[in-house]
Amino acid sequence: MIGFLVKKTFFDVWDNMFRIILLNLGFILSLTIPIIFPGYIPIPALAIVVAAAGFLWCTVYLAAAALSIKAVSDYGVFNFADFWANLKAGWPAGIVLALIGFFFFVAVKIIIPFYLEMNSLAGLLLAAVVFWTLVLALAASQFFFAIRARLDTKPLKIIKKCFIIFFDNPGFSIFTLLYTIVTLVLSIVFAFLLPGPAGALLFLDEALRLRLMKYDWLEANPPAAGSSKRRAIPWDAILIEEREKTGTRTFRNFIFPWKD
Predict the structure, then answer these.
(1) How far is 143 from 145, CA to CA, in rounded Å?
(2) pLDDT digits 0-9 by tens, 120-152
(3) pTM of the complete model
(4) How many CB atoms lie within 10 A of CB 198?
């Protein structure tokens, strides 16, 4: 399943490269608001307000981008006219994620250093608990926008489902988190234009969409009465149709698709 996920994501990024680049460019330009603009404002309080508003806009932008690329994951395309409709639909989720990000910032910059400065075993243990709680929350919240796009619109239910997905699929969630981090690091080579944040959002949406097929299969194939064993999921059978839709390609197909 993981191999197919990586392959399909690569195909979709390649086929929608122009749209992915434009989404990433929009996000990069959005980052200038909280990162660059405050430096030109002489009033400290106003500079903080601009930085906060800019950060809020960036998360709202990502929410709209996640709703847009859902179509790509579903073997379709999105038009940029759809982006504005998705902006209106996704702004609450963007604000909630901004608040989550602020909590992470406070925990890293204030709470953990405070415990470490206690210079005691209790302080060290508390700092460790907060740190690993943040890691767990990060691994779960990576699916926030994908869940908003596919499962629910209510913030509290989205957060709840983030943790349900994580605890039911811990190994898979750790893999997707590491893959996303590697994707963003490698994006530095292309100035975050490709695959960039939009490519990472596409990967996470693809990951959730495919993983949800597991629950469709479990619903269609309930366990035998009295069975408590965790059953192996027959991914090869589940993904037959997906593999047919995605197909296979050679290097020539990528470079000269019109010659097929």
Answers:
(1) 6
(2) 999 999 999 999 999 999 999 999 999 999 999
(3) 0.92
(4) 29
